[in-house]
Amino acid sequence: MRIVSFDLEGDFAAFKDPSVTTNQTVTVVPSKSALIGLLGALLGVKRSNSIYDGIYSEEYLNLFKSTSVGIKLRNNPEKLTYYTNHRSLKEAKTKPFKSDLLVLPTYTIFVKSTDQINGELLSRLEANNFVFSPTLGHSYCIARIPKHSIEDLKEIDPCGRRTSSVVLDELQESNNGHSGVIFSVPAECSAQIIVERHIHHYFSEDTLNKIVLRQFIPVPVDGKKCFVLIDSVETPLKLSKYYSLNNALEEAICLY
Q: Which of 95, 114, 133, 148 has the highest local Cβ count within 10 Å?
């Protein structure tokens, strides 16, 4: 197996939680749905071709179904909060509306898909020629892709290995008293771990489902490499798998 990876960065990012409407809080990393949308922009795959075709086009669903993604946060971006005044629809007055932005975020994105999709993505990255401009969650957050590569991939058992990628927890908090991923932070690693809850879309047979799941995000501190040691993993939904790149067995990459 082979995988396409690329660095993704920008001056600002605004990946938002669609379930929150009272303010515009942003997440540190994009959800899988946001990354599939970004890949669709690079390749020219529209989410929907017409308002009469439903929410998702068949081409977009095929891209989603065929593709697994992984994320590595390469820096610790600052979060900028600002307020704007919005006119109230109920009263003759304005009210403040809170918004967030990430400042100077940098990621490495891993894409595992069909040979056709991987080949087209690699060609677009090599030519730096995309159908639609890539953005980081909003049209004013223009993305840059300064580096890319294609690497060999091998599925591994993650237990006892370290990882610096985002880890998906497949156990719902509301139904379980423990986490589906048990890990520890080595003494030599000054790691900061951020926990985010995303609406995760996934296919069960041919049905697109959604569920709220946790993601554990290792965050680099003071420019130092950050990783955790995985002790055990439960994957009841079969959404995530772990791989090593270029036979580098010391580190695992979580793809989902």
A: 148
